[in-house]
Specification:
The complex is a heterodimer of chains A (408) and B (406).
Chain A (H helix, E strand, L loop, with lengths): L2 H21 L2 H14 L3 E5 L2 H4 L17 H7 L3 E6 L7 H21 L4 E3 L3 H9 L3 E8 L9 H8 L2 E5 L23 H13 L2 E3 L5 H10 L5 E2 L16 H9 L3 E4 L3 H4 L1 H9 L1 H15 L3 H17 L9 H14 L4 E3 L19 H9 L4 H28 L2
Parallel strand pairs in A: 1-2, 2-4, 3-4, 4-5, 5-6, 7-8, 8-9
Chain B lengths: L1 H20 L7 H9 L3 E5 L2 H4 L17 H6 L4 E6 L7 H21 L4 E3 L3 H9 L3 E8 L8 H9 L2 E5 L23 H13 L2 E3 L5 H10 L5 E2 L16 H9 L3 E4 L3 H4 L1 H9 L1 H15 L3 H17 L9 H14 L4 E3 L19 H9 L4 H28 L2
Helix pairs in contact in B: 2-16, 7-8, 8-17, 13-14
Classes of the chains: A alpha/beta (408), B alpha/beta (406).
């Protein structure tokens, strides 16, 4: 008698196993992925699309063949929450930097207003959820580079009041108070003033973004911030050994404080092979970049386009290797294996970087969900990676901001 | 007859009662009641300059200047526009930066005094502040040069809570002529017109204090919402270019606007103005003394300027101007433009105050004086604040309409 149940059990198991095998045919899994993706909040923490808006020719409402982000493609890719990056060169300082940052904040707000049927400006996790419930795309703003406060802590409050919800402490160059990962150290990390900036950001509910900063700045910020920092667009150094990426130790330290690393899709940051080949060509590339700067002047979109064209030519000529979008999955998986699924998310660098083959623009995002599902990730974990993790940090930031303001 | 006698008796009795209720400050019980049940709105105060040195505490009663929370409470000043001001000669990104710093200073004051102040951006929020027993703080930008000819900056200001902009200060800016500079644009340029249209859309009141007469008429023609003169008085009484002619006031009123009377003695009194003109050395001496006391601290300069001017009056070097001159201006404006088109724009902490209106605690004397002049309670309430609230409401309505059409 005892065997019967066992036998039955084997049968049930076998049968259901059989069913599962049939049930998870490619099409079925794809369908599950689609459902999961399009019912999730997909939140990307970094796109440089405001640079395109500045040209005055770009219409966010129209499907474009250039670039990576517009409303039709966001809809197609299920990208329903996007941080647009406020970016000016780290060489511009003082009142000029403030004025230009204001202009970009304004242009984002204007674009949201012009497309109010599709977009809504969000400044909290709750507003993102509300936008999602209404079928709208939530637009958020992040400032990419601490030089835009003009060395004046009061500008943190001004930007926060205008809706900015994260600030990257430095860009490619050191600013007045924080060292960059791609410049010669000048402050040994974060200066005392820089620490005050981080404290004010905590008080304002502005996320502390440690992408671009030097390792020492990262550890300083991690120590002083009362809210978990984020890396809005950085990848894994263990896979591509670039200073813009995070070492395993850094990722562990970030996770221990509850933070999130948002994976950047830039080929140089995704692929060691590409990074090395690119570095070997660096002399040629930087000479070309100088040429582009001369041709394009201050037009960052023009420079970006010329760079993309150059990299395509070099790739077609076999001088640079092809990089597959699956590298993104490799980076995500590395972080998950290292610190679990609560500390990784998406920070594409759309419209500001060279995308890998297969993820040419934001319409391709459902592939990430499908790949993770195929890898055996649970739906819950995938939702966290797509947006839930960053929403959690935003909520913590909002709570801490309320507490700090009440304590004063 | 009997009835008439009875009525007379009652009138006399109530007059005696009113007189009996007078306190030492000369404010009748009726005026006090009316004043303290009204929303008193003041559309121009330069107190912001005092915030900048980081030492001034708006929450503590000060013996200098005209504005702090205790004195606003005492005078029942219910809503105050703090002015964002930098000199006309500061332009470009530096002007934008300095304006942002002052906007932040106002916002921080509100944040530091959450039980007393409420950052308001609409007429409804002013009423809400009142309900909560708080003083509504609002923000006005005094001079179009602070947008650096950039509509984006204007929108950012609006986003930060700015609810009026004076199109120029003492000098012309890049797109509008000032009343105290040589005309350069024949009023408002085409860009200036687009500024006004954008202000209409944003719900930022267009303030025509300081602008040239031609700029005023250009604005009046183009603006879809009523205008305010946030701190100007009557030119028929005191012939200063900063004041409005009777015709300008009539035209302003015809479009629903309000002139907010400025208490500066140089705009109130022709006699004072003539005395200043007759002796330019006096002003130079005052300026020199101010610099000696304050250096480049703008907040200190404004406060000390008022104090030193008062010293000169005491020494008989300048004529004494009484607060009743404010009433004279209000009454003139009411006669010319109508009672729906006059309000209060003190210029506290930025000008020389007349005797009897040294600070916000003295505001009930205006209510008392207007009642005494025979103004109805309803009309007094309008002048104290309701007219300004009506313009704000209308500006908000126009903004909603323009945004809906976009």
């Amino acid at each position: 008698m005892r065997r019967l149940p066992a036998f039955l059990c084997v049968c049930v198991c076998l049968c259901s196993g059989l069913f599962l095998a049939i049930g998870s045919s490619a099409d079925d899994l794809a369908e599950r992925a689609r459902k999961l993706h399009f019912s999730s909040i997909v939140l990307d923490t970094h796109a440089d699309t405001p640079q395109r808006m500045l040209t005055g020719k770009f219409d966010l409402g129209k499907r474009d063949t250039d670039g990576h982000v517009d409303i039709p493609r966001m809809r197609e890719g299920g990208l329903n929450a996007q941080f647009f990056s406020i970016f000016i060169s780290g060489k511009i300082l003082g009142p000029a930097a403030i004025q230009q940052a204001l202009d970009q904040i304004d242009i984002v707000r204007q674009n949201v207003r012009q497309h109010s049927k599709d977009l809504t400006l969000a400044t909290t996790a709750e507003e993102i959820r509300q936008a999602h419930a209404e079928g709208k795309i939530a637009i958020l703003m992040g400032i990419e580079g601490g030089h835009m406060i003009g060395n004046d802590i009061r500008m943190v409050r001004i930007y926060s009041a205008l809706g900015v919800r994260y600030m990257t402490l430095a860009h490619f160059y050191n600013d007045e108070w924080a060292d960059s990962s791609t410049d010669k150290p000048a402050h040994n990390g974060l200066t005392d003033f820089g620490k005050d900036v981080v404290r004010e950001m905590n008080r304002q509910g502005m996320l502390v973004d440690i992408s671009h900063v030097s390792d020492k700045t990262f550890y300083d910020a991690l120590e002083v911030s009362k809210v978990p920092p984020i890396a809005s667009h950085s990848s894994v150094r263990a896979i591509s050994n670039h200073p813009r990426n995070m070492s395993d130790d850094m990722i562990k330290a970030l996770a221990a404080k509850g933070g999130v690393i948002q994976i950047n899709y830039e080929r140089n940051y995704l692929s060691e092979e590409y990074r090395k080949a690119f570095a070997e060509l660096a002399g040629d590339v930087s000479r070309m970049e100088e040429k582009f700067k001369k041709e394009c002047g201050d037009d960052n979109e023009c420079i970006g386009k010329a760079e993309i064209k150059l990299e395509k030519e070099l790739t077609d000529a076999g001088k640079l290797p092809h990089v597959s979008w699956e590298k993104i999955i490799e980076h995500i998986d590395h972080v998950v294996k290292l610190v679990g699924p609560d500390h990784v998310g998406l920070g594409s660098d759309f419209d500001g970087a060279d995308m890998p083959d297969g993820l040419e623009d934001c319409s391709k995002l459902p592939k990430i969900t499908e790949a993770l599902l195929r890898k055996g990730y649970s739906e819950t974990d995938i939702r966290k990676i797509l947006g839930g993790n960053i929403l959690r940090v935003m909520e913590q930031s909002e709570k801490m901001s309320r507490e700090l303001q009440a304590a004063q | 007859m009997v009835r008439a006698i009875l009525c007379m008796g009652a009138c006399v009795a109530s007059a005696v009662l009113v007189a009996g209720a007078m306190k030492a400050d000369g404010i009748s019980e009726k005026a006090r009641k009316l004043h303290f049940s009204s929303i008193v709105v003041d559309t121009h105060d330069d107190t912001t300059q005092r915030f900048l040195d980081g030492k001034f505490d708006l929450g503590a009663r000060s013996s200098a200047g005209s504005i702090d929370i205790p004195r606003m409470r005492e005078g029942n000043l219910g809503a105050i526009f703090f002015s964002i001001w930098i000199p006309s000669k500061v332009t470009g990104p530096e002007a934008v930066d300095k304006a942002l710093v002052q906007i932040d200073a106002v916002r921080e004051q509100v944040r530091r005094h959450p039980n007393e102040l409420f950052l308001a951006t609409t007429a409804g929020e002013i009423r809400e502040a009142r309900k909560q027993g708080k003083i509504a703080a609002l923000i006005g930008v005094e001079g179009g040069h602070m947008i650096n000819s950039d509509l984006g900056v204007l929108r950012s200001f609006a986003g930060l809570g700015v609810r009026y902009m004076t199109l120029t200060h003492s000098g012309n800016d890049e797109w509008a002529d000032s009343s105290t500079d040589k005309p350069a644009h024949n009023g408002l340029t085409d860009f200036g017109k687009s500024v006004v249209r954008e202000m209409n859309r944003l719900g930022v009141m267009v303030d025509i204090s300081h602008v040239s007469d031609k700029t005023f008429y250009d604005v009046l023609e183009i603006s879809k919402a009523p205008l305010i003169a946030s701190h100007s008085s009557c030119r028929a009484i005191c012939d200063a270019p900063r004041n409005m002619t009777d015709q300008m006031m009539k035209d302003l009123a015809a479009k629903g606007g309000v002139i907010q009377v400025n208490y500066h003695v140089g705009f109130l009194s022709q006699e004072f103005r003539d005395a200043e003109k007759a002796n330019p050395e006096l002003n130079k001496a005052i300026a020199a003394e101010v610099m000696k006391r304050c250096g480049d601290n703008e907040g200190c300069q404004l406060i000390e300027g008022d104090r030193i001017t008062r010293e000169y009056v005491e020494q008989g070097k300048l004529p004494r101007v009484d607060f009743s001159k404010i009433i004279e201006h209000i009454d003139h404006a009411v006669k010319i433009a109508g009672v729906d088109h006059v309000g209060l724009g003190s210029d506290f902490d930025g000008a020389n105050m007349p005797y009897g209106m040294e600070d916000a605690t003295k505001l009930p004397v205006i209510t008392e004086a207007l009642l005494k002049k025979g103004y109805s309670e309803g009309d007094v309430k309008k002048i104290l604040g309701e007219n300004t609230l009506r313009v704000m409401t209308e500006v908000e309505r126009v903004s909603r309409e323009l945004n809906a059409h976009n």
